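Incident log, support desk, overnight shift.

02:14 A customer reports that sequence design results differ from what the structure should imply. Their input is reproduced verbatim below. On-call engineer (initials T.W.) acknowledged and began investigating.
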């Protein structure tokens, strides 16, 4: 007789555990989407594909790069259209996404190597990118910040 109530409790606890597991996994979908968009942006950057980059950036996009220079969307696109820059390596690692409704904050590490006007360069940065889902339901980058850690 005591087996039945214990079985019912066990089954109820198991059901609750699976419910919690489902809830815990739900936020992963938007974060995965953001990571895929980060990859798409990075690949477009590496290829110099300014059309793809432009479509991913909000009209009021702003970015701060390693030397402290800031660019608007048009300035960033013009800067990346420079044919004297050849990106050989463009890698992002240690990416973490924090979701806040229709806003996502991405942090991580960035490594870039290439040539600019025939001169080799290499940087290892920390990054912060901010994405926002616009009124049409499309995720776009609204801000980025890339800086070289003080230890370098």
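02:41 Re-run completed on a clean worker. Output:
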């Amino acid at each position: 007789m005591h087996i039945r109530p214990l079985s019912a409790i066990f089954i109820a606890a198991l059901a609750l555990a699976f419910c919690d597991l489902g809830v815990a996994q739900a936020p992963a979908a938007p974060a995965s989407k953001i990571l895929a968009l980060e990859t798409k942006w990075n690949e477009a950057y590496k290829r110099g594909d300014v059309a793809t980059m432009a479509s991913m950036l909000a009209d009021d996009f702003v970015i701060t790069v390693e030397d402290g220079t800031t660019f608007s969307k048009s300035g960033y696109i013009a800067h990346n259209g420079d044919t004297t820059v050849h990106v050989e390596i463009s890698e992002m690692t240690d990416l973490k996404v924090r979701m806040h409704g229709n806003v996502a904050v991405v942090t991580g590490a960035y490594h870039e190597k290439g040539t600019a006007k025939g001169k080799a360069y290499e940087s290892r940065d920390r990054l912060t990118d901010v994405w926002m889902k616009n009124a049409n339901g499309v995720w776009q980058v609204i801000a980025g910040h890339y800086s070289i850690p003080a230890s370098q």
